[in-house]
Queue: 2 jobs
Job 1
Amino acid sequence: MAYDMYQEVILQHYRSPKNFGPLSPADRTGEESNPLCGDHITLRLKLDPGREKIEEVRFEGDGCAISMASTSMLTERLTGLPLRDAEAITRDTVLQSLGIPLSPVRVKCALTGFVALGKALHPEHAPTTA
């Protein structure tokens, strides 16, 4: 019964993702792709004037139901969160929020938005193309 409930929540977030769309101007941006499933997520953060809290978060992209739902749920958690608390979110927290068991391939899908968040929070560690 609970498994079915989690599946329905995932489908709702996939069909109508929260915080989906552009954010301009954004203070921080992170991007991640999962070529195995075709997922691509760009996550943007707008920070408060003191640059200590996430004032607004939006994401764009496309992907499988797990990727989109996981990112949608993550953005709900991030809005209004101090940066230090956002940095404390773990991959296990993200995976547990889905509430269903995932195969190793699907774990990568579920973490696409989380990896994009890490790049947005720590742009100094993001790989460059230059």
Note: The longest strand covers residues 39-47.
Job 2
Amino acid sequence: MSVLNKEVSLLYKVGEKIVYPMHGAGIITSFEEKEVLGSMQKYYVLEISGIDATHLVPVATADAIGVRPVIKKDAVDKIYKLLSNYKEEDTSNWNKRYRENLRKMKTGVLEEVAKVVSSLSVRETEKPLSTSEKKMLNNATNILVSELSLATDETDEKIHNKIKELLSL
């Protein structure tokens, strides 16, 4: 067994539920090796919840890019509470607000993604979002739904409706 294969078995296995920051949560279906710049690289093949697509997640950098296990079911209520209670400082400068929300999304931390969903959803009820912010809200919502769905074993539709309800939309 090569060092690379040992590394794979120590991190995640086929069937595990993981989060790929900026993409969402999914289940590892297999591993693939591909030649990249002259060397063989190992990848997790990740089926993202709620979308009909697979992502190749590089094994060697998974930790550095923030790949992590899906939250436990008992942590879901904390996310729901955050969604219904989160209030952000009003930042009228959309560019600064966008950069801050993007920073939160890149962390891969579900609480931060939930803050983005909450703040942009509230802002959208007050006035129209820019095209970039609409896209970010949609992406953040999909990421949030994918992880909560896997954590609770509920459908994406049910989770999406719960989020709307909590945000009173």
Note: The CA atoms of residues 34 and 163 lie 39 Å apart.
